[in-house]
Amino acid sequence: MSFLYDFFSLIYPNVCMACGKPLYRHENCICSLCLHHLPTTDFHLNNDNPLSKLFWGKATLESAAAFLYFNKGGKVQHLVHQLKYKDQKHVGTFLGKLYGKILKETPFFKSIDTVIPVPLHPKKQRLRGYNQSDYFAEGLADSMKIIVDKTTLYRTFASESQTKKNRYSRYQNVSSIFALKDNHNLSGKHVLLVDDVITTGSTIEACALTLQKTKNIKISVASIAIAS
Questions:
Q1: Are residues 33 and 123 located together in one domain of the fold?
Q2: Count of domains in the chain?
Q3: For residue 172, what pLDDT is reported?
Q4: Residue 38 contacts by C-beta under 8 Å, 6 or more apart in sequence?
Q5: pLDDT score for 125
Q6: Could you say which residues of the chain have pLDDT below 70?
Q7: 3-class secondary structure for 75-141?
Q8: Is the domain of 90 the same as that of 136?
Q9: Do 12 and 83 fall within a single domain?
C-alpha cells in the first residue's frame, strides 16, 4: 500500500490547497505548517466583534463570526479561490468541519438548529457547477451534528458581480433578490446563515432580512473569512 501511495502521488500529487506544496500522508487538504499559521479571527469568543458590528442597526442577529482573515494575495485568498473557481469542493467541507468543531463548543452557537448557505441563482450555479457555500455549510453541519437547509432560502434572479461595487451599490444589487418557500419549518429555530467571504455584509444582510419574515426565528452568521 505504501508503494502504491507513493507511485500515485508522483502522478497525481496531493497538494496543499493553501501553498501548493505536496502533502504528507497524514495531512489532508492543508499542510500542517499552513494550518498552524492560518490567520484565525477568534470572533466566536466575542459578540462585539468587527463582523457583528457590520450588521448593527441593519439586521437583527444573535451572533456573527468568521473563521479567518482574508488578505489579498494571502493563503486564505488562495484557499477560497481553489474552492470557488477550481472545483476543489473539499476545501469548503474541510474548513467547515474545522470551524464547526470550534463553534459547537461556543455558548453563542450551541443552540443552532439548522445551517443555511447563501444561495446562488440556479443559472449561475449551473454555470459554475456548484455553490461553494453549500460545502462549507455541510462541513459545519457535520461537526455540529445539525441539518443543512438548501431549499427554503432562494434567489429570485441573478444579480451582477459584487466584486467592484461599493457598499451601497452592493446592497442595491442584492436588497430584493432573496425569497422564502415553505418557511414554516424554520419557525422558532436558530439558524446559521453562512457564506464564503464577507466584505461589506450586504448579501448576508439581505438574506437575514428575508429570513426575519419567519415567526420567532433566530439568526446567526458564520463565514470562512472576512475581508480585512
A1: no
A2: 2
A3: 54
A4: 18, 30, 68, 75, 76
A5: 92
A6: 1-13, 158-175
A7: HHHHHHHHHHHCCCHHHHHHHHHHHHHHHCCCHHHCCCCEEEECCCCHHHHHHHCCCHHHHHHHHHH
A8: yes
A9: no
C-alpha cell read off for 207: 438574506
Q: Which domain holds residue 216?
A: 38-227
Residue 88 amino acid letter: Q
Question: Do 110 and 207 reside in the same domain of the chain?
Answer: yes
Q: Which residues contact 45 (CB under 8 A, 6 or more apart)?
A: 106
Instruction: Identify whether residues 87 and 114 lie together within a single domain.
Output: yes
Would you say the C-alpha torsion 224, 112, 159, 170 has a positive or negative sign? negative
CA 119-120-124 angle, 5° bins: 170
Q: 78-109: per-residue pLDDT in tens?
A: 999 999 999 999 999 999 999 999 999 999 99
210 in Cβ contact with 183 (< 8 Å): no
> Residue 209: what residue type?
L
Closest residue by Cα to residue 220 from 183, 195, 202, 199: 195
pLDDT tens by residue, 59-76: 999 999 999 999 999 999
Q: How far is CA 6 from CA 10, 22, 24, 30, 174, in A?
A: 6, 12, 10, 19, 48
51, 43 in Cβ contact below 8 A?
A: yes
Same domain for 74 and 91: yes
CATH number at residue 42: 3.40.50.2020
- Whether 208 contacts 55, CB under 8 Å: yes
The pTM score is 0.88
Same domain assignment for residues 157 and 71? yes
In 10 A of CB 22, how many CB atoms? Answer: 12
Together in a domain, 47 and 108? yes
